[in-house]
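idk why but the lab printer keeps eating my pages so im just putting this in chat instead. protein + manganese (II) ion:
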Amino acid sequence: MNNLQPKKEHKFTFGLWTVGNPGRDPFGEPTRQPISPVTIVKRLSELGAYGVNFHDNDLVPIDASAAERDKIVGEFKKALGDYGMTVPMATTNLFSDPVFKDGAFTSNDPRVRLYAVQKTMRAMDLGAEVGAKIYVFWGGREGAEADASKDACEAIKWFREAMNFLCEYSISQGYDYKFALEAKPNEPRGDIYFPSTGAYLGFINTLDHPEMVGVNPEVGHEQMAGLNFYHVVAQALEAGKLFHIDLNDQKGPRFDQDLRFGSEGIKNLFFLVKMLEEKSYEGPRHFDAHAYRSEDEEGVWDFAAGCMRNYLIFKEKARRFNEDKEIQSLLAEIRSTDPAFEPVPLKFTKVRAEQVKSMRFNRAELATKRLPYEKLDQLVIDLLLGVR
Ligand code: GCO
Ligand code: MN
Ligand code: MN
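predcted complex ->
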C-alpha cells in the first residue's frame, strides 16, 4: 500500500544510539557489531527516514582530540548532504561516564555540576553545527538511591540553575534552540527527579525563559509509571509544550524496554498517532527504541522499517476512523444534546453565573442517556484488527 511507504515529509527520525544499539543489557555483552554513523545515515535515508539525532558521544568519543572531532564531524556532515538527511535534535550524554555516577546537574559536587554544564555547552555547539533546533535533556543520572545523601529541593534548584544558564547560552550564541525535557521515573537511578512529563510541565513555568522550554515525552517512560501516554501527550500538546516526542513501546510497568513502536500497545498508540496527525504537531516523529537483542544488523533495519510502518498504519486507520459512517454516527449520537444547552463557552460574567445557578436540570433523566461505548470501542478494535 503506497501510503505505508515512509517518506521524508513524514519527519521520521532515529537516534544514532537507537539503530546503533549493539544489544548490550545489564546482564549481557553486545550481540551485534557497532554500526558507523555514516552507514546509519545512509541506511535510514534509504528506508525513508527524515533525520538522525545524537548524543555528543554517539558521534564524537568523549576523549577525542580536536583533530579527530573535526574529521568525524566532517565525514558525518558529508553523509548528511549525500543522503539528504537532517539532524533536528541533539542531546548530551550525561549518564555513561563514571563522573556522573551521582548525577550531572544535580550532583552534590559543584565541580561535577560545572563539568556537566561545560559538556552540554560543547554538545550544543556540535548540534548547532549540524543544524539541530531542538535540544533534549534526559536526566538519566539526576536522582538518588539513598535519599539521605541529597536534599531533593536543592537538587531541583541546581537543575533550574543549569537550565537557566543554558537557555542564556543558547540565546547568546544565537542558536535558537527549543529545549525539550524528558522524564523517566527510574532506571538507571533508583529514583529520577521529575519522574513524569507532568512534573516537568509544572517545573517549566519556574524557569527564566519558559517560552524556550517544553517536553519530550517517551511512551515507555510514562507507561513505567502506569500512565496513559495518550493523555500525557494531550496535556503537553494542549499547553503548546510538545517540542519533541520519543516513540517506542513497552510491556507494562517494568524496566525500560524501548521496543519497536506499535509492537505492543496498539489501541493507546493508535489514539496517540491520531492526535499527533490531527492536532497539527509539527515536530519530528522520533523513534527512541532498539531492535531485540537477538537480532543481527539486518534485523536492526527490519526494526527501523517496522517503527515507521506501524506509525503509518495507525495514521491510515485514523483516516478510516474518520470516514467510517457507523463510528461517526455513534459519535454524533453520543455527543447529541438538548439544543437549548448547546455548548456556549463557559466564560464567567456575573450574569452568566446567575444564569447557570438558576438553570433547571433533570438529573435522573440526564443519567439515563445511553452511552454505547462498548459498541464504539468494539468498532475501534475491529478497525485496528483489520476485520473492518
Ligand atoms: C532511555 C532514554 C534515552 C534518552 C536519550 C536522549 O530510554 O533511557 O529515553 O534514550 O531519550 O538519552 O537524551
Ligand atoms: Mn528517550
Ligand atoms: Mn526509554
